[in-house]
């Protein structure tokens, strides 16, 4: 895609959440049902606020959302209880379709959500939000409810306290955007390609291969553009968003997952692991689910340099529709 085509996509497909009133969206919602899905691992501190405020505003006061579903992704804290108290339906990721096995990861939780939700429109929101607003949900639904040709809507936002308000996070700026520039320029108009707040039609989501980890967002964009064309993607400005931050070395794992998913889509599967895997899925679904790599990082210890190896899971789930 040339720079001018990317600019044309941006012009035609960039929205602001305030373009639609709730009343307009409620009218446009006729015939649709909406599921809000919140993948959560150890988010007891924030998930109650996310679920509770959305429930009050968009379920109790105005029925824009038909169900709020938290997918508890192997939490060891009180995430499930807090989310249920706040009014969500809670499923443990590993308990959904146990015949399909279970692996850790955000993408896994999102993929599993497709088996326990009813909505033909699905909105994803992260559970670790610290500065956010309930208008995120109607904002993300705006293009889906008013533009039949749009199948996936990505949020974008300002990040308070960062070097520039529209800068992405560390993996966004150092991995996702450069990779998009090199290999997927058709996606260069997306301001926050990794945003955890996005929405899509179930009919699309059920057709997508989903990486089980953090590559689920970039993979969904690439595959949607491939399947339906980039014109099926829109983005919506949501205002200010802040979340809790992972340590840099943990983001190394996220970056590895992103690069692997992009490489796989180019036809370059991850190299075979060079160390014994320390994780095995409960049940091997197919070869893709087993991909992994050892990421070697380094830390000082008692005056010496100590390598720290972590196994990064690179597996992908097949289109949900193929196993329904
Ligand atoms: O194995 C995982 C890892 C993350 N998450 C959820 O995915 C969202 C974004 O992940 P995280 O907060 O780790 O990423 P960050 O925003 O810190 O980069 C949050 O709701 C997490 O609880 C999940 O459900 N399972
Ligand atoms: O953009 C990124 O590099 C990462 C990490 O962001 P920070 O550097 O911690 O602000 O955040 C992305 O991934 C998160 C997990 O899926 C999402 O919650 C963020 O919206 C997304 O920007």
From TrEMBL:
Keywords recorded for this protein, A-Z: Glycosyltransferase, Magnesium, Transferase
Basic and acidic residues bias: start-end ranges: 276-286
Catalytic reaction equation(s): an NDP-alpha-D-glucose + (2R)-3-phosphoglycerate = (2R)-2-O-(alpha-D-glucopyranosyl)-3-phospho-glycerate + a ribonucleoside 5'-diphosphate + H(+); (2R)-3-phosphoglycerate + UDP-alpha-D-glucose = (2R)-2-O-(alpha-D-glucopyranosyl)-3-phospho-glycerate + UDP + H(+)
Gene3D superfamilies found in the cross-reference section: Spore Coat Polysaccharide Biosynthesis Protein SpsA, Chain A
Cofactor(s) demanded: Mn(2+); Mg(2+)
Residues of the signal peptide: none
Enzyme Commission number(s) of this protein: 2.4.1.266
Region feature Disordered, mapped onto this chain: 265-289
Glycosyltransferase 2-like domain mapped to chain residues: 35-157
Family stated for the protein in its record: Belongs to the glycosyltransferase 2 family.
Entry protein name: Glucosyl-3-phosphoglycerate synthase
Source organism of this protein record: Nocardioides fonticola
Upper lineage: Bacteria, Bacillati, Actinomycetota, Actinomycetes, Propionibacteriales
């Amino acid at each position: 895609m040339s720079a001018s085509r990317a600019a044309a996509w941006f012009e035609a497909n960039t929205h602001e959440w305030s373009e639609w009133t709730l009343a307009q969206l409620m009218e446009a919602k006729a015939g649709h049902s909406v599921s809000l899905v919140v993948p959560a691992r150890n988010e007891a501190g924030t998930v109650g606020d996310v679920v509770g405020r959305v429930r009050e505003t968009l379920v109790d006061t105005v029925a824009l959302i038909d169900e709020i579903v938290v997918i508890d992704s192997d939490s060891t804290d009180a995430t499930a209880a807090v989310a249920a108290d706040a009014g969500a339906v809670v499923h443990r990721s590993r308990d959904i379709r146990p015949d399909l096995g279970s692996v850790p990861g955000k993408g896994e939780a999102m993929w599993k959500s497709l088996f326990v939700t009813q909505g033909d429109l699905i909105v994803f929101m992260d559970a670790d939000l610290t500065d956010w607003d309930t208008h995120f949900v109607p904002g993300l639904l705006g293009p889906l409810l008013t533009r039949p040709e749009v199948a996936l809507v990505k949020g974008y936002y300002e990040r308070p306290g960062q070097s520039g308000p529209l800068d992405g996070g560390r993996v966004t700026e150092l991995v996702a955007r450069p990779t998009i520039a090199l290999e997927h320029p058709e996606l260069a108009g997306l301001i926050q390609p990794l945003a955890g707040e996005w929405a899509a039609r179930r009919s699309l989501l059920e057709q997508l291969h989903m990486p089980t980890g953090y590559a689920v967002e970039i993979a969904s964009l690439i595959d949607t553009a491939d399947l339906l064309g980039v014109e099926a993607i829109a983005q919506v400005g949501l205002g200010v968003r802040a979340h809790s931050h992972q340590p840099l070395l943990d983001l190394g794992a996220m970056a590895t997952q992103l690069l692997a998913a992009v490489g796989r889509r180019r036809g370059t599967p991850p190299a075979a692991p060079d160390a014994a895997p320390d994780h095995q899925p409960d049940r091997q679904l197919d070869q893709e689910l087993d991909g992994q790599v050892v990421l070697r990082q380094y830390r000082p210890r008692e005056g010496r340099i100590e390598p720290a190896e972590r196994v990064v899971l690179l597996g992908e789930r097949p289109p949900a529709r193929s196993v329904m």
